[in-house]
Write a structure and sequence with these properties.
This protein is mostly helical. The chain has 16 helices and no strands.
């Protein structure tokens, strides 16, 4: 096949590109072999890119092994692995079949970090539970990587992890700042799904577990000014307990009066 044994690298790269476009029988298996076994880094990177669109579960395993190798191809493999994972869907299935075995088999936390940094590509209950476990464990060596991934998490459930992080004893100023940004993003970003009452209850938990008065006020600032109709329907009942908090009672009263 030209993709494997063409006259020169440029010809082989073009053959790989065409192989991905045609997506013919046996094409994915051939690309998996190139991505895994070729001694030519240029060809392997071309195979990575092609697998982003026609890859299978075996492709994900090949790419994850390259990421864990911590070599010069780790970055392009990481990028292609995340894109293929996102295109593939089935987050919890991929966690069980690909990511968890790879993480369990990694030689050290530095290798695991390469996969942890792209877990938002398979955002689901299982991957989030793993992130929560390692981000709360100082001995994991993965706190920073997990925090970076949690900042990009596409679903509102990650915000409750941040509530735990910022309310933990000894939370750093950096963690508190990141947590504030992440929670406010979950509350205000329209791309993060969640009914108004769900987001209001998140805001309530964040205020009730806040590490400082400034943090409480920052969260409540998301509701100062114009409220959406479905926020107005729930905010008085959800925020009622905050009227007993002397730190924010006046601010909360003003929000409720405005609603």
């Amino acid at each position: 096949d030209v993709a494997q044994s063409g006259p020169d690298t440029a010809t082989q790269v073009e053959a790989i590109r065409i192989l991905a476009l045609r997506n013919s029988d046996g094409g994915t298996a051939l690309l998996n072999a190139i991505a895994r076994d070729s001694v030519d880094g240029t060809l392997r990177k071309a195979a990575f890119t092609a697998l982003e669109t026609i890859g299978d579960v075996e492709s994900l395993k090949v790419l994850s092994s390259v990421v864990l190798s911590k070599g010069e191809l780790t970055r392009p493999a990481q990028r292609s692995l995340k894109r293929l994972s996102t295109n593939f869907g089935a987050a919890d299935y991929l966690w069980t079949e690909v990511y968890k075995p790879a993480l369990d088999g990694a030689v050290d936390s530095d290798a695991r970090a390469g996969l942890v940094l792209i877990l938002d590509g398979i955002a689901g209950e299982e991957s989030l539970a793993y992130l929560k476990e390692v981000v709360m464990d100082p001995s994991s060596g993965l706190e920073s990587s997990a925090q970076s991934t949690l900042m990009r998490w596409p679903y509102i459930e990650s915000a409750d992890v941040w509530v735990e992080i910022v309310s933990a004893e000894g939370a750093s100023a950096k963690e508190i700042s990141m947590g504030e940004r992440a929670i406010k993003r979950a509350l205000t970003n329209k791309d993060i799904d969640g009914k108004a009452v769900v987001k209001l209850n998140l805001a309530l938990r964040a205020v009730q577990n806040a590490p400082s008065v400034d943090f409480k006020l920052a969260i409540l600032s998301c509701y100062e000014g114009t409220l959406l109709r479905w926020e107005k329907e729930s905010i008085k009942s959800v925020f009622k307990p905050l009227l007993d908090d002397p730190d924010v009672s006046e601010v909360v009263k003003a929000i409720l009066d405005f609603s």
